[in-house]
Amino acid sequence: MDLEKFKERGIKKREALDLFYEDNFYDLLKFADALKKEEVGDIVTYVVNRNINFTNICYCNCKFCAFHVSEEDRKAYFLDIKEVVKKAVEAKNYGCTEVCIQGGLHPKIDTYFQAEILRSIKERVDIHIHAFSPMEVYFGAENAGLTIEEALKILKESGLDSMPGTAAEILDDNIREIICPNKIKTKEWIYIIKKAHNLGIPTTATMMYGHVDDYKDWVNHLFLIKEIQEETKGFTEFVPLSFMYKLSPIYKEGLAKPGVSGIDDLKVFAVSRIIFYKILKNIQASWVKLGKKLVQVALRSGANDVGGTLIEENISRSAGASLSHMSVDEIKEMIRQVNLKPVQRDTLYKLIKYD
């Protein structure tokens, strides 16, 4: 396939799907790397951040998730707001520019509780708060008897700076019925994301792939993200999340694949770079999901960001991740080893520090 034509006119769904099936693997990666270099140069960004997962008690019961527990489980925890604030202050003192706050869906959580977390942190420390997925926003609003717009306005006024675009998984309701039947539907995820963007709350975009899905589902998902970005320009980055299968209920029940190959992981980055060319320039390779070495290859296959230090990341660790924290020095060395230049950024991709 003549890949160069995609620079001139973009790529169609059928063509994107063909790229996943074709054998021109190395040409595909090389082309995606060239597009990435054209858009962002030889730099690779990272953010110094801390994850605060304030509770693992969750009654959504997603079939891919190994993080959630019931309230009676001996591993259950629910941090009080003072403890969350303490962790945010510690993060600032460590040098973090961001705290990412997410938690399970506990019946006691509503928009007003979420807002109290935000206000309490902002009263103590000046730090970017990246918090509450569309599912958490929906859940909190429902428990508080608010509309989505009302909830988002309260959260923004209370200190919400940006939102993680998680809970997307695969944006196809047939797949969602299998892997996360109690979660919001595709239309609801899109509505909440667009509403956030329209209110001036930027978000990330994600895709969790490699379970009961296939190439067609990936392409459809990517084009949905593309269409939203063309309309709102509210996504800061796209983050492919390779399914971590080992401890997931759906895999243990024999209903899901054991993830995908490294080749397919790299194709996701390359095809995403082509689809998002000149529309969404930041594509993150998650070292938590892929490990250091595959991330390094992804940085030569279309990715330009490696995410953050993720101090105290619990969700992926619960799913079997071997890495759940990296120091800034480790991140910089990982990037330098593939002859690229590490640059610290903030959550919204303002460059802070060239190393």
What can you see in these coordinates?
By secondary structure, this protein is an alpha/beta fold. The chain has a single domain (5-354), classed as Aldolase class I (TIM Barrel), CATH 3.20.20. It is built from 16 helices and nine strands. The strands form three sheets. The protein has a four-stranded mixed sheet with strand order 7-1-8-9. Strand 5 (203-209), helix 10 (215-232) and strand 6 form a beta-alpha-beta unit. The longest helix is centred in the middle third of the chain and has 18 residues, at 215-232. The model is unreliable at 313-322 (pLDDT under 50).
Set down the secondary structure blueprint:
Elements: H1 5-9, H2 13-21, H3 25-40, E1 43-47, E2 49-53, H4 81-94, E3 98-102, H5 111-124, E4 128-131, H6 134-144, H7 148-158, H8 173-179, H9 186-198, E5 203-209, H10 215-232, E6 235-242, H11 249-252, H12 262-275, H13 287-290, H14 292-298, E7 305-308, H15 315-318, H16 328-336, E8 341-345, E9 351-354
Parallel strand pairs: 1-7, 1-8, 2-3, 3-4, 5-6
Antiparallel strand pairs: 8-9
Concise account of the structure shown:
By secondary structure, this protein is of the alpha/beta class.
